[in-house]
Amino acid sequence: MFKLIFIKELKEIIQSSRFTISFAVCSVLIIVSFFMGAQNYLASQAQYEATIQENKNQMAANSEWMMVQHTIMLPPQPLMALVNGISNDIGRNIEMSGRGELRPENTRFNDEPIFAIFRFMDLEFIFGVVLSLFAIIFAYDAINGEKVNGTLKLCFSNSVSRASFIGGKLAGSFIGLTVALLIPLLIGCAMLPLLGIHLNSDQWLRLGLILASGLAYFGLFLALAIGISAMTDRPSNSFLIGLVVWIFAVLIMPRASVLISGRMVEVPNVDQITAEKSRYRIQLFDEDRPKMADFSAPEGTEPQAVMQEFSKFMRELGDERNRKMEAFEERINEEYLNKRREQAKIALNLSRISPASVFTLASSQIAGTSLELQNRFMDSAKDYQKIYADFMNEKTGHTGSSGFRMIISTSDDDEEEEKTIDVNELPQFQYETASFTSSAANSILDLGLLMLFNLVFFGGAFAAFLKYDLR
Amino acid sequence: MDTMNETIKQAPLLEARNLTKVYEDGVKALDNLDLQVLPGEIYAMLGGNGAGKTTTINIFLDFIQPTSGQAFINGINANEEPLEAKTNIAFVSENVQLYPNFTAIQNVDFFVRLGGRHNYSRSDYETALNRVGLQSQAFDKKLKDFSKGMRQKCGIAIAILKDSPAILLDEPTSGLDPKAGKEFIRLIGELRDEGKGILMSTHDIFRAKEIANHVGILNNGILVAQKTQAELKGVNLETLYVEYMAGYMDEAEPSLVNNLSEA
Ligand SMILES: Nc1ncnc2c1ncn2[C@@H]1O[C@H](COP(=O)(O)OP(=O)(O)OP(=O)(O)O)[C@@H](O)[C@H]1O
Ligand SMILES: [Mg+2]
Fold first, then answer.
1. Domain ranges (residues) in chain B
2. Whole-structure pTM value
3. Nearest ligand, CA of residue B203?
4. Which of A122-136, A413-427, A428-442, B75-89 has the lowest mean pLDDT?
5. Which of B19, B49, B173 to mutate to test the pocket of ligand 1 (most atoms within 8 A of CB)?
6. What count of other Cβ atoms lies within 10 Å of the Cβ of residue B222?
């Protein structure tokens, strides 16, 4: 009985014009998304290489390591183009300096603001928004449509159990639709090498996992829609309810969670922090002012010696202030980051009520474009900063810092030949992506939640139908 | 056959015993209904709108539970062992609806298999569809283009192919043109002659008189009259029916007046 209903469901799906139209639309969107992802990646890769080369050329034009301005850049990755995550929103370039804060600059959206408005059509969007809506459109009348049609009554005038009917229906529509969606997805995957994108086995594994979780996400919306149709009498009602649930799950809840967590944890904004820092700087200076006024050289010292003594005194004061300032900045930055992390954590956990956020989190974690991307990039940059500082120290006796530098040229240099520097001596910046196992481990909660949602929705649809009024 | 019927008391294929149904909102749709349909018999249930005909059929199909009493199909309690009971029954509704995107043959194939018959070939389906009078060029057309009459024909073809001992028909000829209605009734007569037990609800008193072995008149859920074909000979069924309906109206009127005065 189950098999019969399962096969009927498959046939019914394939023969309906609703399927033909929505399948065509989805296939085009999926293939376009792969194509655009590939194009995006190639463009980013070209830009990346050009920027690195440009930076090298600029450095090579210098005669002194001290003059060098070194910019490191987050290397683009194919999966970033397929699941954007935050990769377009974070600064990709960091101007290196031997010490001090590193500031990532030049986001993708900064380059092309138009995309900031419309975003890209990546796989996360296709699954998260398009296919979930497709699931609702497809299945909103799965049960009550048959009731309105009258076919439900005719079916159950036979010796058919409710369990095998709803089981066949759920399995038939899930397998029918996911297999259908797999076709354009696999075409998309096969296109990647043809478009010049060669994934390694680790990246294929990730892509496979992303697609699997996408289909699981699609499945839960399908089960949700079937469940709603098994709790209502009329398709127009179930469509409305399905749409409202979809809007809440996909559009409202992820955003609301960020707003709510913003209320729950107060985090000062960057301007407040800057203001606080400069207040402290002034305070430190004010504290030093009486000491400066009290400066006096011992009686009868030479004026030149007095000057020397004074500048030494001032330097010591300044160094002391800098030390305090740095400690203060470090503390306040740390506090700020902690609060932001706490806020983000609350937001993420709250948003996990919605399957849409769960899928977003899972897919971006697997693709390496979750919030973690920024942390990893900054950590890599900080690690590199040490290497860079050591290198610069060795070359110049200074830790190369951007900002104000006084170059004192002594007269004996004049006789020497114009020196050039070999930029290849500079250690390369390496961005380490997380290993597959650590990405998978990080996404395990969200993958588990996706499974749980599936279980709940499929179970719910099943249970709802057992109580459904067949007349 | 006739002589056998007279000598051996056969077990009824369809039987309602003290069947009572009170809906959640308090409407008493059936009140102690007793009826029996023997093999080779057609039982016609007459009654106005809301008399309880569909309710009776829905109880046999286990779509609703009776408040009290039992319904049996081939001796099996329809509400206690519905899956077992339904292997013995075919159902044709007043408005047969099939899957609109399937062709007639695909629909027939699905529903006949659902009815537990797996060993038919396409030519068997064609024979059945021919028998019910569906033109052969419609066999592979999608159901969404079918008229009501064509759908009813498919419905009866499915019932024929299912070949169950008992058949339930809920106003199967309503909305059919006279010719189609007549053909339909002829088919039902044939099925009866094959030994099926048929319970049919209808508003069509003339057809009922013409074909039914028993006629029951339901009024407000109560079986107010039950006549055999022999008893109906020479009786004007229309007058009889109207008399019972008139009684119903008389009963209904006081409450109607009450309702109006309350409002
Ligand atoms: N689900 C329900 N809930 C409450 N009352 C109902 C329900 N279904 C039917 N009824 C009531 O039960 C009574 C009998 O209805 P039923 O459908 O059995 O009549 P019927 O004889 O088939 O009428 P018709 O000729 O119009 O098809 C009616 O008064 C009807 O309003
Ligand atoms: Mg009725």
1. 13-88+166-238, 100-163
2. 0.84
3. 1
4. A413-427
5. B49
6. 18
